[in-house]
Amino acid sequence: MNPVVLRNVAKHYRLDAVDVPALADIDLEIHPERFTVLSGPSGSGKTTLLNLIGCIDRPDQGDITVDGQAVLTLRDDALSDFRARRIGFVFQNFNLLPVLNAYENVEYPLLLAGSGYSAKQRRERVLGLLDAVGLADKARNRPGQLSGGQRQRVAIARALATEPMLVLADEPTANLDSHTGAAIIALMRKMQRELKVSFVFSSHDPQVLAEADDVVSIRDGRITGIRRMEVAA
Amino acid sequence: MNTFRLALRNLLRNHRRSLTTLLAMMVGAVSILLFGGYSGNINYGLQTDFVKRSGHIQIQHKDYFLYGSGNPAAYGIANYQHIIDVVKNDPVLKPMLTVVTPTLSLGGIAGNFAQGVSRTVLGSGVVVDEQNRMRRWNDYGFPDRYKPLALSNTPVDSAVIGTGVARVLQLCGPLKVAHCPQAPAKASETGAAAPDDIAALSAQENSDKPAQPATRIELLAANAHGAPNVAGLNVVQAVPQGVKELDDLFVMLHLAQAQRLVYGGDAPQATAIVLQLQHTSQIPAAQARLETLMKTTLRDDALEIHDFATLNPSYGQITGMFAAIFGFIAILIGAIVLFTVGNTMSMAVVERTVEIGTLRAIGLRRGGIRRLFMAEGLLLGIIGSVLGVLMALALAWLINHGGLTWTPPGNVEPVPLMVRVWGESRMIIGTMLGLVLVAVTSAWWPARRAAKLQIVDALRHV
Ligand SMILES: Nc1ncnc2c1ncn2[C@@H]1O[C@H](COP(=O)(O)OP(=O)(O)OP(=O)(O)O)[C@@H](O)[C@H]1O
Ligand SMILES: [Mg+2]
Fold first, then answer.
1. How far is the C-alpha of A133 from the C-alpha of A129, rounded, in Å?
2. Engineered SS bond to A180: which of A59, A149, A159, B218, CB 3.0-4.6 Å?
3. Atom of ligand 1 nearest to the CA of A20
4. Which chain A residues contact residue B363 at CB under 8 A?
5. How many A×B Cβ pairs under 8 Å?
6. Across all residues in chain B, what is the average pLDDT?
7. Architecture of A30-42+80-228 per CATH?
8. Helix and strand tally (H, E) in chain A?
């Protein structure tokens, strides 16, 4: 089953009295356990599309199915719970909670999702993720005491905490230097493979495109092409 | 990470703003509590004074309260001694009572006929020992101010008068009253000279007394049959009364002497039976019991009962005035706290818009956002009111030990200025609850706005 299916989706913004079309005629399937990149020039609609896939925004028309669930039928609370359990987010600006340390930031989604983890399992999971992103020794640091690259690593651990089937990242390397960005991409790639999660990115970054399994090209709110790599056996 | 820990950390994050808000709440709590403690102390003081003088409840002849001042003798309670016995031995009332004592009020003319001066007075005949026991009542723990009546241990024909009475009767000299100017000479022209028959009565009354001390006065009153009667009284002291109107009318004498004056050889009566209770809070229970007795055992006596607040209308007026000022201050401070906390929370919501979007994206429900900000308001309210109460207690202690004094209305001597905060649990809890409620209320609107934010808009916020 494809984790994300969009059918005939359209979205426009209203600015004052003017309609700004952002997306039109979007038909898209994201394949499971793949590293999918949305690529396109600035203003083409990548963020808008990611927001729709992430169930934090609603289209004007069309249907969206995430993990087999027709998400547009869900009410706000149910949708929140759905996001908490099934979708992880990585943001361009990291968006960690400044009052929580690295450990607590990673733990927070577990508490939100009320997932069936015992306190001990939760602890193991958080420490395991921090270890996997190379920050085992920074668990007690608050975001203000971490570098940009380290913050994004914490954010990746947080996005993966609840074992989501889908992780969305809107330009996750845009605020990092190219060296750190490459390390972050490599980390996400590694995590995606190990945890068998579907990752969807938006990016202009050639490094990212090079790593991608599937590349969805967008221009002026329309999909202009999809290039899928052969699935390795 | 539960909501409250998160809320607390967010408050600590912007500790300067949180402190300013807390300070506003503390100042508010302190003002409310100190003023409440000050006015509460005044109310207790007034109540203590009234209860010491006129007891908690008085049993009177029916209609005496409204019409009796015209002719007190006509509203006497004939078998007051029996009623006192019934009350004192009643199993329900007995444990509450401290004193039950009769009094007799009378209107009359006091004259220093040797000087040719006289004036109308209000006399009250009292049982001195019992009145002294009443004056020991101190349920609110005021610094001991017990002073026995000046009438204590005096012969039955003794009297105590107000300084105003002493002035008019030209007794200031003999009674050694301070600050009492001698009456100008022409006073005797306008002063009421005693009519001949009264002078004769007084002469008759005094005929058996050989030596006339300079402090001797005559008290003329109508007896129960409406005929005039005179009692010779030896004034032992002039005592200033806090209110001038009373000071100019006050005569206190022994009950036996007053009864002899009004009832002569007839059976003596009393115009009131004064009941003093251990605690003011027992009034309703005591009143209810008295009502029952009046319908049963004391059915044949036409009686009515009044509590001290009815007998002393100024008590209700003064406490009412303080309550109004207190209410005004409380509302004012409530409004200030409302806007202060509201402003703090609104700023927090704006500053943390992206954070709100993030929390919502990773799965926190709208209600969770609302709870988070409400929890911050609640914490501000709790911390602010606790600190405010502590500060008010400390300040009250300082004031109470600062040696300040003041003279309350109706008092003659200054009393220590006291602010009662410690032990006033109802006021303290009420103030705390009120402040917490105000803080939560003012957080409600910003919290609602935060919860209603569109996730994508919040995330795009710069
Ligand atoms: N909230 C909004 N109100 C009005 N117009 C918007 C809003 N958000 C996006 N748009 C418009 O919709 C179009 C798509 O925007 P979107 O942010 O999805 O582009 P993008 O591909 O993510 O661009 P970038 O690479 O610069 O992030 C743009 O024309 C943009 O101006
Ligand atoms: Mg974008």
1. 6
2. A149
3. 5
4. 80-85, 109, 112-113
5. 68
6. 89
7. 3-Layer(aba) Sandwich (3.40)
8. 7, 10
